[in-house]
Amino acid sequence: MEKRRPAPKRPTVSTFGHLRQVARQFCPPYEIADESPRALRIALRDPDGKRPPIAVRHRHERRMLLKANYLVAEAAVEGNGPSEDGELVFRFRGSLRRQKPFLRWRQPIADAGEWSRRLEGPLMGGVRQIKAIESLRIGWSAAERTWHLSLTTMSGSMMGGFMSPLPIAVPMDREEALGIVSLVDALATTAT
After folding, report:
1. What is the pLDDT of residues 104-122, one digit of tens each?
2. Domain boundaries of the chain, sorted by first residue
């Protein structure tokens, strides 16, 4: 009787390993401060203490034919802003080939126009560096005097589906990471 060979092991893809590669794209100017493999989260800090911390994590989402761990970059940036709470929204206008993003407040705020003009150029510069934005929210809390940035992107994500047995790592390049840093820097300038 012939011995059966064990079935070959299927290669595994670590979503946290991919997240670590993404976090390294932010270094420098940031460095990895804390890793939470269970939470699929990495905290980044500026060694000089001049920039606010950034957290990158994977957010799992499952649809009918798609399983995804989207990359989410988050930061809380102290500064100045409108007199009341609000949220900046990015809209895209034009055909798919020539889409141009523009900035708008979700709801009208009394002194929001000044802040839109001040932030639009620097924020648009950062947005243009990021290739595959799924969603971008920038909320302002007047009581906390803090901007809350939450960016979800396909770059840096892990994608899988019913046609692929293994998840596929979507790369994030250095330019995209620096685009996220420039969004945080734009919000940090409001403190001056």
Report:
1. 787 887 777 788 788 888 8
2. 15-191
